[in-house]
Amino acid sequence: MAKSAMANGLEVEAPDNADKHRNESAPDPVDREDKWFKLFKETPIKGVVLFATLTLAIGIPTLVYLTAFAGMGYGEQVFTHTREHNEKGASERLGLSSDFGPSSLGGFLAGVVMCTLITLYLLDAELWEDPTALRVRRAILTMCGFLTVLGIIYTAADYPFGPLCLLLMGLPVMQVITYRAIMRFDPHWMGATFPTGFRDFLIFLPEPFILIGVITLASWLGWVIHKDNEWSTAQQRQYAENLDCPEHQDCLGGFLLWISPLLCASVLFFYAGFAYTFRPGRKQSELKMLGASTGLVMIALWVASSLAGVSEGLTSGIFFFALAALIGVGITVALMSEGGWQKIFADMKNKGKDAVAGVDPDWIRALFMITAGPLVLLFLPVSALNQYLRKCMCLPCTKVVPHDSEEWNYTLTGEMQARIDRVRVWNWTSVGRKIIWIGVGYQLLSVVVSQFTVLFLAWMNEAVSSWSLGAIVGITISVGLILFLLPPVPGAPIYVTAGILIPSAGEDSFGAFGAVILAILVSLATKLMACFLQQVAIGGTLAGKVWIRQICMVNTSMIKCFRLILQEPSLTVSKVGILVGGPDWPTSVLCGILKIPLLQTMIGTLPAIVLIAPCTLTGALYYYSGKYPDSYYGTLAVISGMIGAGVQSGSLVVATFYVDKILRDRKDEVDAIPDDEEVKMADDRERAINKQREEAVEWPRLQGPNYFWMRFVLKASVFMMVFSCWVVTILPGWCFRSFELTDTIDEKLGGRAWTLKGDKGITRPLGNAVLLLFFMSCCGLWLFVRMSNDVASLASVSGSHDTARAWHFPWSSAGAVSMICAHPPRLQLGQPARRNTLLLHPHRVSTNRLA
Asked: How far apart are CA 435 and CA 422, in angstroms?
């Protein structure tokens, strides 16, 4: 038997003859598709049996999930039962002291799994080669997996997304088990000459996934309609009371119990689409699929931020769904690859330069540090203990470290020390700044957009609720235009706000249906006017300005693809896809720069109503659900919100698809587009200035005592940014109070939008602390940039990077910092600055390009 895939201890074995067939030249797509139909045409019984087997392999775990964790099943009883057992704790159930261990059984199981995995690492289990030891390792890992599943089930009431994540990760594993069973029963189930690898197995999965998904969705809709299970106020209160939620109207567990069949159907449709990409003529590489899935998670994060304030459960559901989908795709990709994760990592290393061409590697390093850096720090003591066990040679199963080897002198293991040595040579000046910039972007999405934009719009809802219809339409358009001109702010909150305000004021004049239509038209008009302003007032008027063309990145391959598509003479599908799904600000401004006919762009943007209508309808339905609490409007609002999330994500995917298609099919035309010489000269000039600045403040040059304050400012800023991002991600409920667009500040926030103490308002005390750290980190970055500019200017004068010795500049004194802040220098490329003018001119290089 030959191993065909390995991932996380799970091995997929296939007969040797299957490997032989796989190594042979695979048939072309036509032959492959013929085999797909021949399986049902020539051997209908085998085709029916295969379809039934795959349907059962997908349907059984789906049925278990819906029965145990859905409101239409026994989810409410399961949540209540597991909560009772979980709250008893491990000490009571095991007959131990009440002071022993975690207070919950789920926490105890998580601790057991964590301690077991750490023990395996300390014993160097990954290096074991003895067959008996390998069987023991596999048994222990299987036990850890079982305990993890059990722990997630026990904590389902407190972490209701756990079961959904289990389903997302369990479905790929179930398909692997099915594949192995089929291969053992009939190795040539697709024909003697046809490949029978796991990749080929995937082409049969879309139809069973779609069938089970449709059945799940239809069952849920029938349960909602015929059993009076609408998402009404009474239903919310009932779930909250039965699940013992502290805030009866904000019971996330109850919401997920009710909507879990819809989420389950979304999971099934997602995997159907994923499997469809491996159909004939659509062969995808594992690395590309993993990268595309990562991109979908980023899109989901943006969509979740866009829909913040519509429903807390909906926003969290989108984010966790995307994250669990990434894990599930990762498992499938690793199992599909011949060499498992080792081959995936090797491909990343070999193809990484091509995959991220034009991207500074320091951005990748910064992204790794802000996401995994704290975990690495926590792992260092474990590595040190592992090294100690290796050196004492007290356990026969650990790696032997010779006394005369260099590794004997290490505090950490040789593997960890090698990684630390590679990290040490990074230019931490550049990596540190980029960590802060990534944190700024993340905080803008997770805090500014998700919290304060929603707070402002909710305040506006309350403030103008008594105004006339005309005044409300005017203020909606005005505020919408202002927010549209801010690049970080998405359009979804604006549409939802219009859906709340306009129907409330226009219902008497136009009726409920007419008021909703009016809200949709006002939202579309706001979108069109914003595009008009961006194209005419910014792109058209400022097209001659080099800096505006720099902001639009007109010389990049992506914008050149946009240019090819937008300059097509007629309104093609790809052109409409870019106008609707592309980012608002750069797309509209680029249309102005390229002198695209205004009428054509306005007509091409009209299909955006497909994106606008679900979001506006969601706001209107939430308004009516509050006005008629026992109606089905709450149910329709949730469904409309899910549709809105889907079309928002789909529009971005469509735009990305057409850009990728242009890069593949018309790459020569993209390369033939000449660069904007003025922008190129400006970019080259800025790159040269940045290079000079980077060389002057490279991390090795800042190790002297004269640069203590620069190092301190950068390190402190990085620490504060990473800490604030982790706290916001892990403890969002401890930082911010739940608040939606339909809430009022008086009822939900105690009458105050924000307070310094955090006792009232949208922020809690920890949230205020996080905001303070974020602000201090941004100030630290600004101060470090000012210091860096001065060091680079001094270096250009003295001709030496050792500016402290050349100029005897007192960096160690506090007066240096105050002098830099008061008199920032100007750095000019190619012109050696004079000493008596260094501190007389303001610095004109844009600091937002320093990263």
From this structure: 18
| DSSP helix/strand/coil, 88 | helix
Identify residue 312 by its one-letter amino acid code: E
By the 8 A CB rule, do 282 and 271 touch?
no
* Backbone dihedral angles phi then psi of residue 111, each to the nearest 5 degrees: -65, -40
Residue 397 to residue 250: CA distance in whole angstroms: 52
Question: What is the pLDDT at residue 140?
Answer: 94
Helix, strand, coil percentages in the chain from 3-state DSSP, rounded to 5: 75, 0, 25
811 close to 707: Cβ distance less than 8 angstroms: yes
Residue 187 CA: distances (Å) to CA of 15, 25, 33, 179, 196: 7, 18, 20, 10, 8
State how far the Cα of 31 lies from the Cα of 180, in Å rounded to an integer: 24
More confident residue, 87 or 98: 87
Contact yes or no for 274/266 (Cβ under 8 A): no
Q: When comparing pLDDT for 312 and 646, which is higher?
A: 646
What are the backbone angles phi and psi of residue 137, rounded to the nearest 5°?
A: -60, -40
Please give the structure tokens belonging to residue 476.
Answer: 């909606």
The answer to which of 298-307, 520-529, 541-550, 759-768 has the lowest mean pLDDT is 298-307
157 — pLDDT class (breaks 50, 70, 90): confident
Terminus-to-terminus CA distance in the chain, angstroms? 52
Cβ(172)–Cβ(328) below 8 Å: yes
Cα–Cα distance measured from residue 426 to residue 365, given in angstroms and rounded to the nearest whole number: 9
Q: Are 227 and 219 in contact (CB under 8 A)?
A: no
Can you tell me the distance from the alpha carbon of 194 to that of 564, in angstroms, rounded to the nearest whole number? 42
Q: Select, from the ranges 41-45, 377-381, 640-644, 661-665, the one with the highest average predicted confidence (pLDDT).
A: 377-381
Greatest C-alpha distance within the chain: 91
Q: Both tokens of residue 646?
A: 């889907």
DSSP string, 667-721: HHHHHHSPP-HHHHHHHHHHHHHHHHHHHHT-GGGG-SGGGHHHHHHHHHHHHHH
pLDDT over 60 at 558, yes or no: yes
Helix (H, G, I), strand (E, B) or coil at 98: coil
For residue 414 the two structure tokens come to: 């040789």
Is residue 715 very low, low, confident or very high in pLDDT (cuts 50, 70, 90)?
very high
User: Whose structure tokens read 């190092």?
Assistant: 711
Tokens of 561: 């693809």
> Residues 227-230: contacts with CB within 8 Å, 24+ apart?
229/71, 229/72, 229/258, 230/631, 230/632, 230/634, 230/635
- Closest Cα partner for 21 from 200, 178, 172, 180? 200
What is the torsional sign of CA 175, 181, 184, 186?
A: negative
Cβ–Cβ under 8 Å, residues 469 and 502: yes
What is the C-alpha to C-alpha distance for residues 444 and 721, in angstroms, rounded to an integer?
12
Q: Which residues pair with 6 in a beta bridge?
A: 11
Alpha-carbon distance of 326 to 333, in angstroms, equals: 10
**Strand, helix or coil for residue 147:** helix
Rounded CA separation 735/770 (Å): 8
Is residue 772 scored above 90 in pLDDT?
A: yes
Mean pLDDT of 591-609: 90
Q: pLDDT at position 720, please?
A: 96
What is the C-alpha separation between 825 and 823, in angstroms, rounded?
A: 6
